[in-house]
Design brief:
Layout (H helix, E strand, L loop, with lengths): L9 E3 L5 E4 L2 E4 L10 E2 L5 H31 L12 H33 L6 E3 L1
Antiparallel strand pairs: 1-2, 2-3, 4-5
């Protein structure tokens, strides 16, 4: 049938398999082709070695930052609470910020090790999604 000078209002339906034409919902016919499952592959040894090198570099930075915080806490903040020119409330603020920073660094280290553990555990031909 031919509709001359007819306009339709077309928009997305309730999901990717539906379309709405003039406020009437239609289901689209779909055919899934190809592989539906997802399979893991172990990274090549050279790639894994490069990733391990990056992990070590990142962990070296976090260790260095933690050491700097510890040195600062021991050396520069040793007399913070007894200093007559420092408000005790501000001393608490400084120490709490240092503690939060240390905790953030530790979170990064855990995340880095988690990523490393993830790629180390990969196996060839393991089905992830069926």
């Amino acid at each position: 049938m031919y509709y001359a000078h007819t306009t339709w209002q077309i928009k997305k339906g309730k999901n990717k398999f539906h379309i709405s034409v003039d406020d009437r919902e239609y289901k689209l016919k779909t055919v899934i082709t190809g592989e539906k499952r997802q399979i893991t592959r172990k990274p090549h040894t050279a790639v894994e070695a490069a990733w391990d090198n990056k992990v070590e570099q990142y962990l070296a930075v976090t260790i260095q930052q933690r050491d700097k915080l510890d040195q600062y806490r021991k050396k520069d903040l040793e007399n913070l609470r007894t200093n007559i020119f420092v408000n005790p409330v501000l001393a608490n603020t400084v120490e709490s910020h240092l503690t939060k920073t240390q905790e953030e660094i530790e979170k990064y280290e855990v995340e880095i090790r988690g990523i490393q553990n993830g790629y180390k555990k990969l196996k060839d031909e393991e089905i992830v999604i069926e």
